[in-house]
Structures are given as structure tokens and as C-alpha cells.
Specification:
By secondary structure, this protein is α+β, with helices and mostly antiparallel strands. It is 48% helix and 20% strand.
């Protein structure tokens, strides 16, 4: 039985939305290919195929015949960034950057040349120029010819080379429109300047349109530059997610601790994680007790207590205890890798409205060229206007149709939307879900880190056994000042706001999973949870109702005892955003 494989690969040579339909059409004809989805904004194709019926080489040959090229994987990648065995042969970020820099230099050159071309073309039509005869018109036109030639063959070369390549495949796209429009203006003007006898109109007036050719190329390049910049920025969300993955891991091999690349970590590997470090891979704790900040996965700002046999997720932060864990998932099998994969698939997916846009784009260029030819025929042969007027109308139709917003706007919006969502902790399954989101009338939200600030703060203080509120805050904050726990930091911040001076501590012990103990002003202080109070035989009967109410309100009760007597309860909560 032939295995169904899913593959995502970059496509080289796509320059507009009509390219999408051409690549999809070519791949769908291949036997064994089930689904094809080409995304112009990401310049990638995602497809499923039967492994025994076809292979990547056949697929690439078909795409090459259509005038494009797939970037073929050369090795298996374990980082989980691409689907199955599709990998990045070259760093895509570097490739996008290089493409953007090249496009930027071409645009700047075209703009610098076009401004004087435009200026002198306009000035040459004025009465002032003709009256003062600053420069003979023939010489000026030849200078304009030289300058425009540089723009056409340096900055505009990309349009003509793609148009020629597609012509050899009996095809056309937006580049064809630019090439035909600017080429017509350039060739006509060149003949008028160098061989004026071929065009009688050249003798009766200065019918030269070098400014048209150079300006169109410059404006289209500016549009392409903005598109390229948008593409370059849309990958930022994926890069942020990849940045959450640790680069190295400390493993135990042959009874020695060694640091290795995260790519070399194996299943069932023994890993050591020190306080403050990121957990390298998904695993189960085999030794140690700690608290782990899992906010990157759960959105829960309050760290979670972890002990032996508890599961931990790669990329989360080990706060205050040394751990030894056994890996259960590495590479693309980890939770963070699956999230990256989900975001990638969402960015590559198509919204239903995009299918309509792609269908229109596939017939867009032939229709536009046909309309442009009909426009020329109507104005020149039927309406009887001069040849140059009919030609300018012909060029106008081609040029106005050139910007490819129809095919680019939707995929770019999807990439930006899913990317911004991911960076804010909101994962969008696919483009269809995003499109349907406009019909949402009610949203049910887990409050933590979404509706809340994501930072715990003190919301109430209750004292018992005649202890002063200020005194119990002073003692609790003095002890917690040494701790790195967010709940403890909330108490310290509260003391600072109330301008309560902290005391030096004489001893300090961290009771992982329970709280803290220490000596302040020769008094034994305990700060922690209900379990700690019971362990130390502190009578908390007076505080049971208050503690229960605090918990029912979604807050965390922190108990303080002084010399074995309950002193108070501090309510700490992740407060609602302003």
C-alpha cells in the first residue's frame, strides 16, 4: 500500500498571483498527487502524494516545465520547522533579505534615473524650453534614450527575463503586462529618436515616451519592494517561536555531564536542568523538585510546582530547583515544534475567498492583454485617433492592471493575522477558521494572561492574633525578598508601594513546593501555602473561611506565621487588565 506523504517546499520564480494557479495546475496533473496548495505570500507549496506512485524529482521536473523550480530537500531535519522530510536547503531568512536588498538597490537606481528623465521630458514640452533652446531637442532625446535604456535593462531586466521565460512555455503573468507595456513605449520611442524617418509623427512633434517606460518600471518596483518587505516581516512570529527552543542541552553520558546541540538529544536521554535554565525537551522528571514557568504554553503566569514523575515541556523555564529528567519527545515531536508546525500550516492554508481570487488571477493576464489590444484597435482603427494616442491607451490598460493586489492581499493578510496571533499566544488553526471568525458573537476566555496582566499582585491582607498588618507585611516581604517566586515578588512590590522598610534576615530556607522559612528580628517566620502550615502544625482554624473565600475568587492565599502562631493571610491574584 502506497504511503501518503505531506510535503512543504519553497517555490523559486513565482512573481505574481497567476503563478500560483500555474504551479498548482501543473502539480495536480501528476499521477499520485492528491492535494496541492500554493501560497504566493510565503512562496511555498504544500502537497500530499502517494510515495510509491511519484517522487520529489518528478514533481520538480513538472514545476520546471511550467517555468518555476522547487527547492529540493537534501537531508532530514529534526528541528520540526518543516513538514515531514521537507527541509530548508538554504537559510530562507537570508534569502529573503538578499532578495529585498537586491530589489531595493534596483528601485533606488531606477528612481534616481527616472526623476531627471521625467523632469526633462516634461520641461521639453514647455514654451520656455523651445524659446530659449537650452539644448537641441535631438540631443536631449538621445540623452533620455541612454538613461531609459539603463533603467530598462538594469532595473527592469527582471520583468523582461520572466516574461521571456514564460513566453517559451506559452504562458503569461503580471511580468508580461509590465514587459509589454514598458517595452512598447521604449521601442516606439527608440525608433522615433534613432530612426525618425520610420515614424512620420516624430517629425511633427516630440512624441517620445521614455518617461512612461522608466516611470512604470520604477513604480512597479516600488510595489514589489513593499511586497518583499511585507513578506520579510511576516516570518517574525515563526522566528519568535523558534527562539523559544533552547539551542543546547546538558546530558549525562557515560556518567559524565556534557553539553550537546539540541539536535543531538535522543529519546530517553538523561538531562540535567539547573535553576533559571530553559528545559531543552519534553520529558518526565526523575529527580528533583522545582517550580516551572509554563506561561509560554498555558498563558498561566503563576509557576507550576513540579516533582518526580511530573511531565515538563521543552522551552519552559525551570525556576528554582535542579532537575534530572528523561526525555520523552525531541525535535519535531516536542510541543513547541508542533505549535510551530501548526502556525506554519495555518499560514500556508487558503481561505475560501482566496480560491476565488486565484481562479480570477489565472485568467487575469490573458484577459487584460486582450482588452488592451481591443482598446488599441478601437481607438486607432475605429475612432481614428493618432497612433501615439492609441498606443498610450493600450499601455495604460496593461499598466493599470499590473499591481497584483488581488492575489497577494489575502495570503499576506493570513500570514500577518496568524503570525500576530501566535506572537500573542493565540493559535489559529487555518485560514478558513480566520475567515469564519467575523461571524463570532460570543467569546469564552480563560482569564489568566489574556484578560489579566499576567503579573501577580497583592489584593488583600488579613491579620490574626492581634498582629499588626504592617508588621506581618514587613516580615513576609523581608523573607520573600530573597526568593525569585512571582508570588513572593508580589508581596515585596506591595511592601515597596506601602513604603514598608524591609528587615535583614538572620537565616533563610526555601521549602520547594511549600514556601519559605527564616528568622527576622529573632522571630521564626513561615511564609507559604496551606500544606506548609499543616506540616509545621500551625493552627489556621481562624483563617479557614477567609482562605476558602480567597480561593473561590480565583486568588491565591499565602499564610504567614510568627513563632508558630498564625499572623495573617495575604491574597495574591493576577489582576484584570486596565
Amino acid at each position: 500500500m502506497n504511503e501518503i506523504k505531506k510535503l512543504t517546499l519553497p517555490v523559486e520564480g513565482m512573481t505574481c498571483a497567476s503563478c500560483v494557479a500555474r504551479v498548482e495546475k501543473a502539480l495536480k496533473k501528476v499521477e499520485g498527487v492528491n492535494e496541492v496548495n500554493v501560497n504566493f505570500a510565503t512562496e511555498r507549496v504544500t502537497l500530499t502524494y502517494k510515495e510509491g506512485v511519484t517522487d520529489i524529482t518528478k514533481l520538480n521536473n513538472v514545476v520546471i516545465d511550467a517555468g518555476y523550480k522547487l527547492i529540493i530537500p537534501v537531508k532530514e531535519e529534526t528541528a520540526g520547522f518543516s513538514i515531514d522530510n521537507a527541509v530548508k536547503v538554504i537559510p530562507e531568512d537570508l534569502n529573503l533579505k538578499k532578495s529585498y536588498i537586491q530589489l531595493k538597490s534596483e528601485f533606488i537606481f531606477a528612481a534616481v534615473m527616472t526623476l531627471p528623465i521625467m523632469f526633462f521630458s516634461m520641461v521639453s514640452m514647455t514654451q520656455w524650453f523651445k524659446l530659449w533652446n537650452v539644448l537641441p531637442l535631438d540631443y536631449l532625446n538621445k540623452l533620455l534614450f541612454l538613461a531609459t535604456t539603463l533603467v530598462v535593462f538594469i532595473s527592469g531586466r527582471r520583468f523582461y527575463s520572466v516574461a521571456w521565460r514564460l513566453l517559451k512555455h506559452f504562458s503569461a503573468d503580471m511580468n508580461t503586462l509590465v514587459a509589454v507595456g514598458t517595452g512598447t513605449a521604449y521601442i516606439y520611442s527608440t525608433i522615433a529618436v534613432l530612426f525618425p524617418n520610420f515614424l512620420a509623427l516624430a517629425k511633427t512633434g516630440n512624441h517620445i515616451y521614455f518617461d512612461t517606460a522608466s516611470t512604470i518600471i520604477t513604480l512597479i518596483l516600488m510595489g514589489r519592494l513593499l511586497e518583499s518587505r511585507a513578506k520579510e516581516k511576516t516570518s517574525s512570529a515563526i522566528k519568535k517561536l523558534i527562539g523559544l527552543q533552547p539551542k543546547t542541552a546538558r546530558v549525562i553520558r557515560n556518567n559524565k555531564e556534557i553539553d550537546i546541540s539540541i539536535d543531538d538529544v535522543l529519546i530517553n536521554e538523561r538531562i540535567i536542568v539547573r535553576p533559571g535554565e530553559k528545559i531543552p525537551a519534553d520529558g518526565i522528571i526523575t529527580n528533583g523538585i522545582t517550580t516551572v514557568n509554563e506561561s509560554m504554553i498555558t498563558g498561566e503566569s503563576i509557576p507550576v510546582d513540579k516533582g518526580i514523575n511530573d511531565k515538563v515541556i521543552g522551552g519552559t523555564i525551570n525556576i528554582n530547583g535542579s532537575l534530572e529528567l528523561r526525555t520523552t519527545a525531541v525535535g519535531k515531536k516536542t510541543v513547541i515544534a508542533q505549535i510551530i508546525k501548526l502556525v506554519e500550516e495555518a499560514q500556508s492554508s487558503k481561505a475560501p475567498v482566496q480560491n476565488l481570487a486565484d481562479k480570477i488571477a489565472s485568467v487575469f493576464v490573458p484577459v487584460v492583454i486582450s482588452i488592451a489590444l481591443l482598446t488599441f484597435v478601437f481607438w486607432y482603427f475605429i475612432n481614428g485617433v493618432p497612433f501615439t494616442t492609441a498606443m498610450i491607451n493600450f499601455i495604460s490598460v496593461l499598466v493599470i492592471a499590473c499591481p497584483c493586489a488581488l492575489g497577494l492581499a489575502i495570503p499576506t493578510a493570513i500570514i500577518v493575522g496568524t503570525g500576530l496571533g501566535a506572537s500573542s499566544g493565540i493559535l489559529i488553526k487555518n485560514a478558513e477558521s480566520l475567515e469564519l471568525a467575523n461571524k463570532i458573537s460570543t467569546i469564552i476566555i480563560d482569564k489568566t494572561g489574556t484578560l489579566t496582566t499576567g503579573k501577580p499582585s497583592v489584593t488583600g491582607v488579613f491579620s490574626f492574633n492581634n498582629f499588626e498588618v504592617e508588621k506581618l507585611i514587613q516580615y513576609a516581604a523581608s523573607i520573600e525578598n530573597i526568593s525569585e517566586h512571582p508570588l513572593g515578588q508580589a508581596i515585596v512590590d506591595y511592601a515597596k508601594v506601602k513604603k514598608i522598610k524591609l528587615n535583614p534576615i538572620e537565616s533563610f530556607t526555601s521549602l520547594t513546593g511549600y514556601g519559605l522559612s527564616g528568622i527576622v528580628e529573632a522571630q521564626n517566620i513561615l511564609v507559604g501555602n496551606l500544606t506548609l502550615m499543616k506540616e509545621k502544625s500551625v493552627n489556621i482554624k481562624e483563617a479557614e473561611n477567609i482562605s476558602e473565600n480567597i480561593s473561590n475568587d480565583g486568588k491565591t492565599p499565602i499564610f504567614i506565621s510568627i513563632d508558630g502562631k498564625l499572623a495573617g493571610v495575604i491574597a495574591v491574584a493576577d489582576t484584570i487588565r486596565p
